[in-house]
Amino acid sequence: MPKLRTVALVAGAALLTRGALRRRIQVSPLWPLPALEEPISGRPRSRALRLLVASRERVADGVVQLRLEGPDLPRWEPGAHVDLVLPSGLVRQYSLCGDPEDTSSYTVATRLVAGGRGGSREVHEQVTEGIELEVRGPRNRFPLVEAESYVFVAGGIGITPLLPMLRALPDSAEWRLLYAGRERASMPFLVEIEKLGRDRVTVVEGRPDLDALEVSEGTAVYCCGPEGLMAAVEARFPDVRLERFAPRTSSDGNAEFEVELRRSGRTLTVPAGSTVLAAVRRELPDTAYSCEQGFCGTCQQRVLEGEIDHRDELLTDTERADSMLICVSRARGDRLVLDM
């Protein structure tokens, strides 16, 4: 009996010690380094869904539409997008262009991009009816705001986040749409849009004339399309609301700089042609990331020192004061210190 009592006491002490260690590590993931006031940076990924590709339809030259079905899907509002995890593991963002009231399916459309990074080609060549895809979201960083009137500018596949907005506007709303594309055959949803707008839709094959757009005070301007079109619209209308699915370019270039990881006591060099994320993962391979384009927020990290060159399309001004998305943003100098 004394031996059994000793064994029980030792086992109990071991369980208590394990629990204490687990709680300590949760407080500071890099324990035994001291915990800072804020826990380690980085947003958890949103809950992933497994959805069935119920249909795949060609809706314009080089554009396919997917309808993804599942039970009791989270609701969304016009402007929202989802992350699709493709069969290869690539993560890409696509605007929802279906009916927000439909909680049984999500609809997205994508154009085949020649010379792209491979995501659109994989959708066009490998995503077929009957397979399941992991879907994260929806999230909305491009919401439809209340305004006295609206002007929408779409370039090609950039019509996808704007289409649900047009459907959602009341009949009494004052709005206009400038829809540009290489040719009509390449412009998805064109027939529906012309029916929605009648005399309020201008369709242009080729480069649109932005000077012809008249925007009065109180008008909300929305734009989505190729980077060149969005840059031109932004130069013409600085308050425009933009939806991007590629990292913002910067005039500061991509000079080499150093990153100190304060918690782990390491200093890294980020080459001109690489990213902070790539450099960090060589030292800390378990660092969370997902889209690598500055949209999902998974790789958000707290910045303790240094000036940031923000190139994401997600963080608020408040968040940008002391954090960055390390997959795209860089230093606006020669050094950053991260809470890692």
Overall description:
By secondary structure, the chain is of the alpha/beta class. The strands form four sheets. A six-stranded antiparallel β-sheet has the order 4-3-6-1-2-5, with helices on one face. A five-stranded parallel β-sheet has the order 9-8-7-10-11, with helices on both faces. The longest helix has 26 residues. It is globular.
List the helices and strands and how they pair.
Blueprint: H1 2-27, E1 48-60, E2 63-69, E3 81-85, E4 91-95, E5 105-111, H2 119-126, E6 132-139, E7 149-155, H3 162-168, E8 175-181, H4 190-197, E9 201-205, E10 219-224, H5 227-236, E11 241-243, E12 257-261, E13 266-270, H6 276-283, E14 300-305, E15 308-309, H7 317-320, E16 323-325, E17 330-331, E18 335-338
The secondary-structure element order is HEEEEEHEEHEHEEHEEEHEEHEEE
Average pLDDT reading: 84
| Oligomer state of the chains in this structure | single chain
How would a textbook summarize the main sheet?
6 strands, antiparallel
**Helix/strand/pairing category:** alpha/beta
Share of β-strand residues = 25-35%
The spatial strand order of the largest sheet comes to 4-3-6-1-2-5
Sum up the overall morphology in one term: globular
Strand tally is: 18
What is the radius of gyration? 24 Å
Number of helices: 7
Helical coverage, percent range:
10-25%
Low-confidence stretches: 7-11, 20-45
Distance between the termini: 50 Å
